[in-house]
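Entry type: protein chain
Record version: 2
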Amino acid sequence: MIFYRFNIEMSKPNLFAARETLLHNLDDVHAQSNLQYDKLPEFEPNFGELWLTKDSSFVDFVDDGRATGGNGLLVSEKALTVLQKLKLPPNRAYALKTIQNGKRVSTQYYWLQILSVNYHEWINFSKSAFQLKSRFEMDTAVAGDIVKIATSNEFMAILDSLGENDQELHFSRLVFNQKYQASGFDIFWLDYLQGVLETNAIVSERLKEAFEANGLVGYSLKHIPIVIDP
């Protein structure tokens, strides 16, 4: 199994779409910005209209600009159909009203909320490699300080301490155990690993092949060093 970091295309002509600035109602407890990482809402979220920038194309994935709480993807109806045929963590789709150049458009987009998973339970720590780096370090070539982690509890304790230490936990190799295979998820997020601002999903080779077979556009993939323990 090969894994990839999923990136929304941000600038290629005719191959990207982006949301204009969304004005939040800070007093609305049901606003889309209040969706959570770890549970689906018990209420119907109030989503603002999806205003696309004037140079956006109607591709399958849209840059949400961090307008929505929790993890998820802003996707076309076609992409939603493909994703729902794959193995996803608990999720829910919300239809959005889409506007461009001041006019309602017929192309239908959805926010697909996808809940976080306890990915730390998947890690074989004895075979994985981690580094601590300053969160102010902008040079990606800087390797950071090697840190040995023996257990899931140690891993979670380090993640909990990162904010007060102004550090980020990175990996140069991540080995998943049989618990990942039991889940079989084709998309997930490594919350707080690789930095608190890391919001890109991790996707499987199955997902990559499904996206390519269905001609989805508006994204790119980069191979990352995650393997499954044989």
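Comment: The longest helix spans residues 152-165.
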